[in-house]
Each structure stands twice: as C-alpha cells, then as structure tokens.
Design a protein that fits this description.
The two termini are about 10 Å apart. The protein contains 14 helices and 9 strands. By secondary structure, it is of the alpha/beta class. A hairpin with a 4-residue loop joins strand 7 and strand 8. The protein is globular, with a radius of gyration of 19 Å.
C-alpha cells in the first residue's frame, strides 16, 4: 500500500447543527447559520482538479463543517466521488445523522475500506435529546462495515463529574474500549489557551484516566511553538470544498492571509504549493495529532496517526480496520 501524498483538511461550508455544545468553536463565536452547501463548480471540474494523477497519489481528505458535517446529503455525494478517485476520506460527525450514515454505507464495499468516521461524543446533547441509543446504533453500523472509525470526547469542565458515567457507558457499548480525548481550545484568545478553569496539571490528571494516546500527545504539544521547517502548505493544506480556495494552514491568527491558490480554477495545471517553512505564527500546532504525526515536520519523533485514532476492545477488535491502520501508520511521502 502506498503512503499518502497530502493531508487535506476540507472545510464543508455549513455552520448548521442540531446540537448546541458550549465548547463548540463555532458556538464560542456565535456563528451558527442555516446555509446549505451550493457547489459553484461542476462536479467534472472538481474530479479533474482532485484526481490522484494531479495530486501525486492518494490523499487523505478530512471533511469537517463548522456545524454538523453530515447534516446535508451533499457530503455523502462528495465522499463517494473522492473514494472513487482513489483517495482516503475521513468525516467528522456527531453520529446522529442516521439517514446520511446509511447512505454512506450504501457506497460499494470495495471503497468503504478507505473511509474513516470520527464520531464526536457530545454527552450532554445526546442525553438532553435522548439520542444515546441513536449514536451507538450508528457507531455499530460503521463498526460492522468495511469502514473504520474512532470516538472522541472534547474535554469540558462541566463534564468532569460525569466521567464515571461515561466510562460505564463505554464499558457496555464499546466492550471496554474508551473514547479518545482531545484538548479544547479557547478560540477567543490569540494564544489558543486550553478551554478550562483548571491548571494544566489538574486538567491533565483528570482527563488522563481515559488513557488516550491522542490526549497525551496533544497536551504535550499544546502551546509548544515549532520553528523547525514545516511542510504545511504542501504535505498538508486546507481546502474550502465548494470554492476551491486553498490555504497553507488554518491555524494562523488571520487564516485568509494563508491563501495561496484556487485548486479548481485550472484543474489540469501543476499546483504551486507554498510551504510555511520556519514561519509558523501559532502558539502550537493547530492540528498536531494529524499534521505532525503524518510528518509535516519530518525530523520530529512522533507517534503514528493510527495511534491517535485506534482502540482495541476487550475482545481484541480494532476500531481501525487492518488496511486503514496500515495506511494511517505511514508518514506523508
């Protein structure tokens, strides 16, 4: 199996969501809206622009909206297109969009082995809306398919008193495999502080009970600036899925200043990548669990991207299927 050529963080232009989580990055800025996805380029143009031949090989396309990514069926369409082009696709979702998850599972099985679903477990919203059963039903559908998955929790101070309940739920539903833990950013601060009233050490001690490799690595990297040469803008870059606008990295204080190309305007020409080099402007790598583990700074000794996602339950079942685990263990070539 060949290694990935680029990690492409795709912004799905929708800030519509059926949840209202206090720690949500869109919610922090009160930016929810009800807009639907409207493609401004023909699908044939998008296919040519994102072909394996043009991109130099298999790419990881990470689809994430400002709100709930799978709230619109157009995401299923573009996912199938990317898989048919031979790419790997990951989708971030709150796990409650049953109809569109079922549509994803209608994609031919020989393509599903390159699909990864990151389920975000929003305990308060799932409880409030009586949707815990819906969430785990959809997780098990993906688990029993050819696709891979993981489950994440965004740590939040008000959630701490329910950690015991959450662990009990996962003991039952996921046969002992615990969710991975992220690190929440306060996006209203220039230094992207940890979203907590606790000290860093208190925060680390409390959330470490989940024994999450993802949490361990992210907390290690949080507010740790990197001035080594970074290949973001080439090995990784961000793509506005509808407009075709590309930027070096979304982590910059003023992301628009990182714009470098429109990938759809000239779908046959060579892409003029612009690497960030020694000029990272952020307090820490904005998406270190993916970018650094996939090798945007090659000399860093990091865990694999697969380690950030996979879990093994009490019966020896992996969340990442064998092929996906191998693929996500490579660094970008």
């Amino acid at each position: 199996m060949e290694a990935p050529r680029h990690f492409i963080n795709c912004y799905v232009p929708s800030q519509t969501c059926n949840f209202r989580c206090d720690y949500c990055y869109i919610g922090q800025k009160k930016d929810f809206d009800g807009k639907r996805i409207e493609h401004t380029y023909p699908m044939d143009t998008i296919k040519r622009a994102l072909s394996k031949e043009r991109m130099g090989g298999i790419c990881i396309f990470n689809l994430c909206a400002g709100g709930e990514t799978l709230i619109q069926s157009e995401v299923v369409q573009i996912t199938r297109v990317l898989l048919e082009l031979g790419h790997n696709v990951s989708i971030v979702t709150n796990g409650t969009m049953t109809n569109n998850i079922d549509m994803l599972l209608g994609i031919p099985e020989d393509l599903l082995n390159m699909l990864y679903i990151k389920f975000s477990f929003h305990y308060f919203e799932l409880k409030k809306r009586n949707m815990l059963d819906v969430f785990f039903s959809n997780v098990h559908k993906i688990q029993n398919s050819k696709a891979s998955f993981s489950i994440d929790i965004t740590p939040y101070d008000e959630l701490i008193q329910y950690i015991g309940d959450i662990r009990g739920i996962f003991e039952k539903e996921m046969k002992g495999a615990m969710p991975h833990i992220s690190v929440a950013r306060d996006v209203t601060t220039a230094e992207l502080r940890i979203l907590t009233k606790l000290t860093r050490e208190e925060y680390k001690k409390i959330w470490s009970v989940f024994d999450s490799a993802k949490f361990d690595y992210k907390i290690q990297e949080f507010q740790k600036p990197h001035k080594e040469y970074c290949y973001a803008g080439n090995k990784s870059f961000s793509l506005e899925l509808v407009t075709g606008n590309c930027r070096i990295c979304d982590g910059a204080p003023n992301p628009k200043e990182m714009d470098f190309y429109n990938i759809y305007d000239h779908p046959m020409e060579k892409i003029p990548f612009v690497e960030i080099g020694h000029n990272c402007p952020t307090a820490h790598c904005y998406n270190c669990h993916a970018l650094l583990t996939l090798g945007t700074i090659p000399e860093l000794d990091t865990p694999s991207y697969a380690t950030m996602l996979d879990r093994v339950d009490n019966e020896g079942n992996h969340w990442l299927k064998d092929d996906m685990r191998e693929f996500y263990s490579y660094r970008i070539m």
